[in-house]
Design brief:
Elements: E1 4-6, E2 16-18, H1 27-41, H2 56-61, H3 72-82, H4 94-100, H5 105-119, H6 123-154, E3 161-166, E4 169-174, E5 183-187, E6 195-198, E7 212-215, H7 217-220, E8 226-228, E9 233-234, E10 239-242, E11 244-251, H8 257-260, H9 273-302, H10 308-322, H11 327-344, E12 347-349, H12 353-358, E13 363-367, H13 368-372, E14 378-379, E15 383-384, H14 390-399, H15 408-420, E16 438-444, E17 452-459, E18 465-471, H16 473-479, H17 484-495, E19 498-506, E20 512-521, H18 528-537, E21 541-545, H19 550-559, E22 566-568, H20 579-588, E23 591-593, H21 597-609, E24 614-618, H22 624-629, E25 632-635, H23 641-646, E26 649-651, H24 657-698, H25 704-717, H26 737-765, H27 772-795, H28 808-827, H29 838-866, H30 869-875, H31 879-924, H32 926-935
Parallel strand pairs: 13-21, 13-24, 21-23, 22-23, 24-25, 25-26
Antiparallel strand pairs: 1-2, 3-4, 3-5, 5-11, 6-9, 6-11, 7-8, 7-10, 12-26, 14-20, 15-20, 16-17, 17-18, 18-19, 19-20
Helix pairs in contact: 5-6, 5-10, 6-11, 6-25, 9-10, 9-24, 10-25, 11-24, 14-15, 24-26, 24-27, 25-27, 26-27, 26-29, 27-28, 27-29, 28-29
Length: 936
């Protein structure tokens, strides 16, 4: 057997022999132990231990002294040999990424039109279409590259760290600097940074009997955590669900289990809610275009007697003008700008669609500790049982504290002990886990189910061995046999907003004796109350989810200006209540106390089934399932690796203040996208209807060059909507597709009327000229270019357009394209088949277009004002809509009933007050009663 014997101050006077690598002589025993473990794990026997293929050369490098760790020279040598602990990221080549922008239904239609133009030898049209494809691809590629560069630049802020022993000190290093042979601490919530072999030692180098619980579902697909103990290999990217243990790094980077399988692992980018809607809109426009174009093609062939190629030429260019060529680019630009804005506010977006979904979040479930409060606990006056002193409670609490832990409770307890207990003062840096005169034999770290930490301690002077526990007061008091005075003190602490920790140690007979209660103060963050108030103004309800007692939650809620309907989490698993009742409790309550991970997940699940879009904040491993389940999972500042991995958004600044920024940014993006959608649908329908009529009835259309010029200039100008001013709604936003399509259709029909009016007037005015068609082309070009494009000034807001002015850049971009169109129409451009129509016609058409935009704005406001969900459900009777409408009617009737009943109670209140006044008056004054008797 290969033994590593360490005689170190870390282990006081004793030395510990550590079996880092099983020897050949212990093979049979190890195999038997492994077999037993596999039986206990019920199904673990399909795993192949990567220790089987460890070469003798690598095995030699793993024989590291567990108390001193590697030296700087050894680390540098192994970094040179094995490289950094990171898996090279496989990125799509720049060429293939650029080519991808030429794929998709919209691009395909343009490419077909481009090919047909080449076949017809319309080289000018061919060049314009090809340029349109290239410009669209270049813009999309450049904007996505900017977003990727911004995220890469901020990636260092998300770098994970590991706690390792190097040079006899416990230090924290980036996980990419780990090398084989490093001794590191694995604890609850850690994502294992490399393939490691467990050593069976705790953080204080004492032997531990309890196995780690490892969640390796991401690697093996197992739904339940598995037990892993001394000698077992734990894989990189697995999550520690319970326990704490030292481990030696076996393999790093591409040599790890997940590194070798990296080529088989793919990341899936889910489309966000907004992206699906925008995709639906794009497909709707394409289908509509195809229908109109097919009908028109048949009319030209069989009614107008066009030959095949001539008819094809007309409808293809018409198709291009109607297709939303800028739709993908506008979407990507808007998303990139939103991510950049949030990054500047210390909000890193891991999944871009989460920005969009944030606009519709109506309930935000927030963790209390560290999010709503400072999580900077300070030691207050303790409650002591008879016979114990402040020194006793702090020393025993220190015994049961985890070495190197960074959470606020452990830091507060250990800090108070090192400040107030004589033997703990002036401990060397990195040696805080060495307690003079005592030795920690075994340590059980905190887990969410037991709710306490436990240490087995030996007094080196007397040889006495005892156990200490520190944790939730109700649990510690119960384990100590109960104490009424202590229970009352817990309530008193809670009413004063203090957090209580119970501390107990064993008697000679092994039973626990309560030492006392430590009180810790965790005040609310200065900005939390304001943030919650701002969320309420934005229509987002904040619910507090905490593992603390309900009474503490109520006190914190009071300080934050929240309602105090905080329920015990047991109300979520009430066997007497059906799911509807449980959902109602989630809706009506302001939060839950004494929750465990399953409760958080259940809250999110119930609210989502009711139709709410839910945001969830968290920082611990116990928050990870709920973060993953929520529509928008938010990992707050100082979170664990597991929470960070499960979240969609990571906050680098403390508190919830940046969440408000996220809500406002997402709603601004929503408004811009809806504005573009209404404009694009309106413009497409108008274009199709107008030219369908003029070609079918009068055989009139615009030259191909002018149609393509309109499509290119107008779509290019709308790109700047990504930076336009946006009027942020006061309620969570929703896509109302029925309303959107109905409004766009109404506006398009009215625009078609205006275009036909211009056509008839111009035809009447220029009808006697030989080149009347050329002038007619210019008039219709200017009108079709300007009037629908000005509509975007109206659709960008839900109210009257003058109440929310656009940004200067947006105004210049949109206005500039129309000024260009007007000047070109006034002076003419023969190469584009545009005859000069003069100043009067040019300014006249622009003036009419602006005035008509104001008229359409009134129509838009009218539709927004009087549109209802009931109208949508009756106009488009989809089953989901009719069911929702029926539910709403039943719910409205119930609310009216409740309101009427409450009014009856209010009507009776004056009568009860009179009766109460007579009763209190009679008790207060016997003379009055006597007077009443005499009067009778």
């Amino acid at each position: 057997m290969t033994n590593t014997t360490s005689a170190s101050p870390l282990l006081a006077s004793d030395s510990t022999t550590v079996d880092i690598a099983p020897s050949h002589g212990a093979a049979a025993a190890s195999a038997a132990a492994a077999k037993d473990t596999k039986k206990a794990d019920a199904g673990d026997d399909h795993h192949v231990d990567v220790g089987d293929d460890i070469s003798p050369e690598l095995e030699a490098l793993l024989q590291t002294n567990t108390t001193s760790g590697l030296t700087t020279a050894e680390v540098q040598q192994r970094l040179a040999q094995f490289g950094h602990n990171e898996i090279p990221e496989v990125k799509q080549s720049k060429i293939m990424k650029f080519v991808s922008y030429f794929l998709g239904p919209i691009s395909y239609l343009i490419e077909v039109a481009c090919i047909i133009s080449g076949v017809l030898k319309h080289w000018a049209d061919f060049g314009i279409l090809l340029g349109l494809l290239i410009v669209n691809a270049v813009i999309g590629y450049m904007e996505e590259a900017k977003a990727e560069n911004a995220l890469e630049a901020l990636k260092s802020n998300l770098a994970s760290n590991a706690r390792v022993f190097r040079g006899s000190n416990l230090i924290e290093i980036p996980t990419r600097e780990l090398v084989p042979g490093d001794i590191l601490i694995l604890r609850l919530g850690d994502i294992i940074p490399a393939d490691c072999r467990l050593l069976g030692l705790g953080a204080n180098h004492q032997e531990v009997d309890e196995d780690l619980m490892i969640d390796q579902a991401a690697l093996t697909g197992e739904s339940l955590p598995v037990n892993r103990g001394k000698g077992h290999i734990v894989y990189s990217s697995s999550v520690v669900k319970q326990g704490q243990m030292l481990a030696v790094v076996v393999k790093t980077g591409i040599n790890t289990f997940i590194g070798r399988a990296a080529s088989l692992i793919s990341m899936t980018n889910e489309e966000g809610h907004f992206q699906k809607i925008i995709g639906s809109i794009g497909n709707y426009l394409i289908y509509m275009t195809i229908v109109f174009v097919v009908i028109l093609f048949l009319v030209l062939i069989f009614v107008r007697d066009y030959d095949f190629l001539e008819a094809l030429d007309k409808v293809v260019v018409l198709t291009i003008a109607a297709i939303p060529v800028g739709l993908p680019t506008v979407l990507s630009v808007t998303m990139a700008v939103g991510a950049k804005q949030l990054a500047e506010k210390e909000v890193i977006v891991k999944r871009l669609p989460a920005i969009e979904e944030f606009a519709s979040v109506s309930i935000l479930c927030s963790d209390k500790t560290g999010t709503l409060t400072l999580n900077e606990l300070s030691f207050d006056d303790p409650f002591l049982m008879p016979g114990f002193t402040e020194r006793d409670i702090l020393l025993n609490a220190y015994f049961a504290s985890e070495a190197g832990a960074k959470d606020a409770i452990e830091l507060a307890v250990r800090g108070a002990g090192m400040e107030r207990v004589d033997i703990l003062q002036n401990l060397p840096a990195g040696q805080e886990h060495v307690i003079p005169g005592y030795k920690i034999l075994k340590f059980l770290p905190f887990n969410p189910n037991d709710k306490f930490t436990k240490a087995k301690v030996q007094n080196l002077e007397t040889g006495e061995i005892f156990e200490c526990i520190k944790g939730a007061p109700q649990v510690v008091i119960r384990l100590s046999g109960g104490d009424a005075a202590a229970e009352r003190q817990v309530i008193d602490f809670a009413q004063r907003g203090l957090r209580a920790l119970g501390v107990a140690r064993t008697r000679a007979d092994g039973s626990f004796q309560l030492v006392g209660l430590i009180s810790l103060l965790d005040p609310p963050r200065p900005d939390s109350a304001q943030t919650i108030a701002e969320c309420a103004k934005l229509g987002v309800e904040v619910k507090m989810i905490t593992g603390d007692q309900v009474i503490i939650g109520k006190e914190v809620a009071r300080r934050l200006g929240m309602q105090r309907c905080i329920l015990n989490a047991s109300r979520l698993v009430d066997p007497k209540a059906d799911e509807e009742e449980l959902t109602r409790r989630c809706e009506k309550s302001d939060g839950f106390g004494q929750v465990i991970p399953e409760h958080k997940y259940r809250v999110v699940e119930l609210l989502q089934r009711k139709g709410y879009l839910v945001g969830m904040t968290g920082d611990g491993v116990n928050d990870a399932p709920a973060l993953k389940k929520a529509n928008v999972g938010i990992a707050v500042e100082g979170c664990t690796d597991a929470a960070r991995s499960a979240a969609d958004i990571v906050l680098l600044a403390p508190g919830l203040g940046t969440i408000v920024d996220g809500i406002k940014t997402s709603r601004a993006i929503f408004q811009r996208m809806r504005s573009y959608a209404i404009y694009r649908i309106t413009s497409t329908i108008h274009f199709l209807i107008f030219f369908f009529i003029t070609i079918s009835l009068y055989d009139f259309t615009l030259p191909n060059k002018l149609i393509i010029l309109i499509a290119v200039l107008n779509d290019a100008a709308t790109l700047v909507i990504a930076v336009d001013n946006a009027r942020i709604s006061k309620r969570p936003d929703k896509w109302r597709i029925g309303q959107l399509i109905f409004m766009s259709t109404v506006l398009a029909v009215l625009l078609t009327g205006a275009s036909l009016a211009h056509y008839y007037v111009a035809k009447w005015h220029f009808g006697d000229r030989e080149d009347a068609v050329g002038y007619l082309h210019t008039v219709i070009y200017l009108q079709v270019s300007s009037c629908p494009h000005f509509v975007i000034f109206s659709t960008r807001v839900g109210t009257y357009f003058w109440k929310s002015p656009p940004s200067l850049l947006f105004t210049v971009a949109v206005g500039g394209t129309q000024v260009f169109a007007m000047v070109m129409s006034i002076i003419g451009w023969h190469d584009m088949d545009a005859e000069p129509i003069g100043v009067a016609w040019g300014f006249g058409i622009m003036g009419v277009s602006l005035a008509f935009m104001a008229f359409l704005d009134l129509v838009k406001v009218f539709i927004f004002k009087y549109w209802s969900f009931e109208f949508t459900a009756r106009a488009w009777p989809v089953k989901s809509r009719t069911d929702k409408l029926a539910f709403r009617k039943v719910d409205d009737a119930r609310k009216l009933r409740v309101k009427a009943n409450w009014q009856k109670v209010r009507d009776l209140m004056p009568m009860f007050k009179v009766i109460a006044a007579f009763k209190s008056g009679g008790k207060a004054s016997s003379g009055a009663l006597d007077l009443g008797s005499k009067m009778e």
